[in-house]
Specification:
The chain is mainly alpha-helical and 78 residues long. The chain has a single domain (6-73), classed as Arc Repressor Mutant, subunit A. 76% of the residues lie in helices and 0% in strands. The protein contains 4 helices and no strands. Helix 1 runs parallel beside helix 3 (37-59). It is elongated and about 55 Å long.
Amino acid sequence: MDDLSCQELAELATDYLEGALAPAEHARFEAHVLECPGCEIYLEQLRATITLAGVSAELEQRPEVIGLLTAFKNWPRP
């Protein structure tokens, strides 16, 4: 099995998180993450970003937040 480079891992990260990698690619991905602290951190950051984006999207749908966003939409800027 060929080693996966950090660049290849970054390119496959979304597919990995969506469960879209073929079993062999999935295994290569996970083996690389286990051996590469930098890619492990990258994957953790990507997961955190996805979580925060989801929370933000949910908050933007709340009536009180919609009201605030609407009120400040045309707020004069200095």
